[in-house]
Fold this protein.
Amino acid sequence: GRMSDGWQGANLQQENARLREENERLKNKKGTNVKQLHQFLRLVNIGNAVLLIFAGLWNLILSAFRPIVFIFGFYVIIFSCCIGCFEFRCPLAICQSFFMKNMGFLFSWKGRLVFYFFVASLVIGQGLVGLIVGIATIVNCLFNVAVMCKYPEYFRLLQEESTKMTNEAIGYEIKNKLGEAAAGYAMKEVESRVHNMMGMDEVADMVEEGNNDYTSNDFSGPVYGTAHSQNDGLLS
């Protein structure tokens, strides 16, 4: 009985170990699939930004310097470049800091979604090319939302990435502020020492001027002359 119980316990331990390994393998496979999906959607978004830039340039070329069409095309190009640069995920912290200070809403999927719709609304009324690119942008937004709803792991990955980028931007800003504070403190110390040295120099100059005044005093004045004549009379 004891041997059978021990044998069953060993089998259960082996089975549990096998199940844990299988779960880890499935989890890693799922994580790999989610990362690949994320990379694919990023490429799609970058392609969408390129199409928007093309539509903006097309409007500029065909605008014939009509103010409204020209301005709309110009803003579409600027906003699309911002979308492309953000989706490219520049690894430099200074880039994250720039987006955080100027376009912080891009760090949220909701903010990006609204911004995509906004740029699409700018381009969709600018001729046939603008209409096609604008509809494609809206379809891309809906596709991203569908993927987030279908794959919660992808949604969590977006949140983790957004948190990481935000922390990098905040860390860069804190580092810059500390550097500026240290530089300012060092400059104040230098200025204080320079002022102290200038004060000592001024005191030394005043002492030197006082000595010069004493040694260059004119003792041939009328008082000194009268006293000198009286002493000569007494001596005589």
